[in-house]
Write the structure tokens for this entry.
Amino acid sequence: MEGYQTFDAIGAVVVGGVIIVSVNIRYRQKTYIEKKDLILKAGWLAGLALFLIYMGLILSGALVTPFLIPTFPEPNSSPDWRPKPWAPMAIYS
């Protein structure tokens, strides 16, 4: 699995193990089903948090990227050439 090489999958396995051990130590009196439900809720909460974080990073990248890509005049263009707000993607065409 290539992904973004952030080790989220490996980190999730390690943190998942820590959560399981912590739930078993803290909630000894609870049944297996109650522990399983608690761990499942923790997993959904962590997944939602990661989803929101990555969507925020994607959105901020999409909003900021047009301002970071330099705009260059076309060859043989007029001297009064000025960059236009919609021009940043023209360098890729």
Remarks:
- The chain has a mean pLDDT of 78.
- The first helix runs from residue 8 to 26.
- Helices lie at 8-26, 32-68.
